[in-house]
Amino acid sequence: MGDKNTPLLAVLQLLRKYNLKGTEDILRKEASLGDVEYENLDLPEVELASILTAHHTESDPYSYEFAYDTLKKFVENSLDINKHELSTLLYPVFVHMYLLLIIYDHNEHAVNFLEKFGTEQEDYCQEDLKRLSIVKHKDQIKGNELAEIYSTNKFVVQLSRDASSQLKRFLHEQKSSTVIINIINNHIQVEVHDGPGRTQAQVRATTGGILGEATRNGMYHIYLD
């Protein structure tokens, strides 16, 4: 059917990965993909990310789970001295991905996204997530206090210089990170502090607020491009 590296095949691979059988069967017929080609469909993650980024926008529901999973792996594999600060990005990125899925009318995908990754968030986030889970349609965002707060304010995250540099390198290297970059630039205020990365106990002592950490003097903000 021509070049194997097409957006349709990339989406098919994601559908198979997440076991979305009904949609997968429809697209497989559209792609005229034979059994042998289908069984051998195995694009490398970097190549898969490149295809999805080149041909999909934020309105594509399948890109969110892939991008969030990529961010999670980046945090998990980060240097220990930076890991705890970088992990504070996971919750606000997760929340805004959920809201974007709702805004783009991908309501079922939003529910699945919340169910899959919601329980992984910190314990102190769970009560807020219950309140947010009430929002299942974009018309419900207005009127939901928590959704409105997240939509109109920036979530504050504090990183050391080294952690912020590591984050920038990750986002520049990962072609799947367009959605994450947009969320960070539009909805997260990344403040950079001097000194080493903080320990888990130090991070926990300052996080947990509805909009993240309190803004402190002597810090500068970064914008990612």
Automatic annotation (TrEMBL):
Matching InterPro entries: TFIID_NTD2, TFIID_NTD2_sf
Location, primary (coarse class): nucleus
UniProt keywords, alphabetically: Nucleus
Entry annotated with the keyword Nucleus: yes
Domain TFIID subunit TAF5 NTD2: 59-188
Gene Ontology CC entries for this record: transcription factor TFIID complex
Compartments, as annotated in UniProt: Nucleus
Superkingdom as given in the UniProt entry: Eukaryota
GO molecular function: RNA polymerase II general transcription initiation factor activity
Pfam families: TFIID_NTD2
BP-aspect Gene Ontology terms: transcription initiation at RNA polymerase II promoter
SUPFAM superfamilies: Taf5 N-terminal domain-like
Protein name per its UniProtKB record: TFIID subunit TAF5 NTD2 domain-containing protein
